[in-house]
Amino acid sequence: MLKDFTRADDGLDKESRKAEAKRLQKELIALQPALREAGLPVVVLVEGWAAAGKGSLINTLISDVDPRFFSVFSVDSGRKEADRYPFLYPFFSALPENGKLLFMDGGWMEATVRERLRGKLGKEAYRQRIRSVNRFERQLRDNGYLVLKLFIHISKDEQKKRQKELCGASDTRWRVSDYDLYQNDHYADFRDAYNDFMAKTGDVTPWHVLDGSKKNLREYEAFRLVTETVSAGLAAGRVHGLPFEEAFPMTETPLLADADLDAKIGEAEYRSELKVLQKRIAELHNVIYRKRIPVVICYEGWDAAGKGGNIRRLAYPLDPRGFDTYPISSPEPHELARHYLWRFWTRLPRTGHVAIFDRTWYGRVMVERIEGFCTEEDWQRAYTEINEFEEELHDWGAVILKFWIHIDQETQLQRFTERQNTPEKQWKITEEDWRNREKWPQYEEAVSEMLAKTSTDFAPWHIIESNDKLYARIKVLRIVAEALEAAAEEKDR
Fold first, then answer.
1. pLDDT band at 393 (very low <50, low <70, confident <90, very high)
2. Which of 47, 211, 230, 379 can pair with 7 through a Cys bridge, CB separation 3.0 to 4.6 Å?
3. pLDDT of residue 296
4. Domain that holds residue 382
5. What does the alpha-carbon distance between residue 229 and residue 436 come to, in Å, rounded to a whole number?
6. How confident is the model at residue 431 (pLDDT cuts 50, 70, 90)?
7. Residues 296 and 412 both lie in one domain
8. What is the pLDDT of residue 9?
9. Could you give the CA distance from residue 158 to residue 175 in angstroms, rounded to a whole number?
10. Contact 411, 471 (CB under 8 A)
């Protein structure tokens, strides 16, 4: 693609091209109000050679755009703590709200090629990286994002000439890094790597190669492509993809009907085992911090099942500097205006830390499904998207523990009634809780389908019998301790 690149003749001379670029720029500005009204988020990824003019091009593209409705992402700034998070973390975190634009100065291509040519990505890791990128782009497309991918191409000689000019002045020398010079010295290797990456990641959203030899060329072509993409997106409206299914290694489906809700533990045994398990988890927290193992713990369950008390017993032995607990409720407006997984990607723990989620991304296939907050296509597609998300976490090295805290209807009614009749507990019960109780059969169906479709080998579900809260707490602590011990041992192999 790059080796044999020749720019198609547009039939324009330099001045005509400048005039046309100016016209397209005004057209893009005029499209902004419609873009905001339609709620279409736009991601413009600008990749290319060092010194090809990526920064200059982005600066021109945004020069007359309302600064309240765009943001700029730099792959270099996004990589500062990249080794502490999954690969896709900085790119998901940067996603714009609906109706806004994101311009990216480098992204998933540059980050991947850089690591590959530095020997940090072997064949299998590179294959996984390509899979991650394709999944990411497909999820963006299916969730209504407009994505445009540009690559600015210049020759080896042109790159060397520009680097020499930049290095010749003290005020611009800083713009040329050792990596940039290395790229020119190994131009053919980088060209082949870029070609391979584009060939393997061009099916979901195509790559557009721009001639970067002259400023007026790249600006004209970029404005044309951005304007065409936005215009086509506005004509089509916000489009959500159809359900997509991908095969994952699954565990035997845990069934709610198989849960032994009569399981109990005595008070004395509970106190004794609680002390032992909390001490062990405190010790293991130090181990996973030292070994930089991230831990993601997910709580879902019936209202009044005992999630809060369960979380408190788990969090108590953890070093407060090394964990966060996230109570997840209805999304805030800025969260609702982005990909539904955005608010979870941005809450992931750093390596060596623990994140505890009190309700999770599974709201998509439960409350959002039942209450009609998303379309059937959305929640049907979400099973695959969630499995992909969790596989990204697993490949990153995270321990993923998912608990469904389970009770029967009679126990829930008793707890609701107690809360309602106890002044200091009345804050725990709402009209919404009673309404949800009336929909128990619908929720039970949704939970059963969720367990069947998302209990994977890398992130299995655990049903926690919680008619006896003491039993449920001990069962969770046992599972957590065993999982952390296994992860620590695996890290040493």
1. very high
2. 211
3. 98
4. 256-491
5. 43
6. confident
7. yes
8. 65
9. 16
10. no
Q: How many domains does the chain have?
A: 2
Indicate the average pLDDT of the chain.
94
For residue 213, CA distances in Å to 207, 218, 220, 428 come to: 18, 8, 13, 65
Q: What is the pLDDT of residues 294-319, one digit of tens each?
A: 999 999 999 999 999 999 999 999 99
Return d(Cα 296, Cα 67) in angstroms, integer: 36
Does 244 reside within a domain? no
Structure tokens at 195: 């070609």
**Is residue 242 in a domain?**
no
| Phi and psi angles of residue 462, each rounded to the nearest 5 degrees, phi first | -120, 120
Q: What is the mean pLDDT of residues 126-143?
A: 97
pLDDT score recorded for residue 433: 82
Please check the confidence at residue 3 and state whether its pLDDT lies above 80.
no
Beta strands, E only, 231-322: 295-301
pLDDT number for residue 5: 64
Q: What's the full length of the chain, in residues? A: 493
Q: Which of 207, 236, 265 is the last residue of a domain?
A: 236
Greatest alpha-carbon span in the chain? 88
347 and 453 both lie in a single domain: yes
Is 90 exceeded by the pLDDT of residue 347?
yes
| 211-216: long-range pairs with CB below 8 Å, 24+ | 211/5, 211/7, 211/153, 212/48, 212/49, 212/52, 212/53, 212/152, 212/153, 212/154, 212/158, 213/154, 213/155, 213/158, 214/14, 215/53, 215/56, 216/14, 216/17, 216/18, 216/21
Residue type, 36: R
Q: Which long-range contacts (CB under 8 A, 24 or more apart) does 415-423 make?
A: 415/304, 416/303, 416/304, 419/304
Q: Are residues 409 and 329 in the same domain?
A: yes
Residue ranges with strand state E in 351-425: 354-358, 399-406
CA dihedral 282, 283, 286, 291 (to 10 degrees): -130
Q: Are residues 48 and 178 in the same domain?
A: yes
Q: Is the domain of 330 the same as that of 207? A: no
Element (H, E) at 451: helix 440-454
Mean pLDDT of all residues in 17-23: 90
Residue 5 in tokens: 């690149």
212 and 152 Cβ atoms separated by less than 8 Å: yes
Residues with Cβ within 8 Å of 219's Cβ and at least 6 positions away in sequence, in order, are 21, 57, 60
pTM to 2 decimals?
0.94
Q: Is residue 418 part of a domain?
A: yes
CATH number reported for the structural domain that contains residue 284 in this entry: 3.40.50.300
315, 368: one domain: yes
Q: Give the up-direction half-sphere exposure of residue 202: CA atoms within 13 A in the CB hemisphere.
A: 14
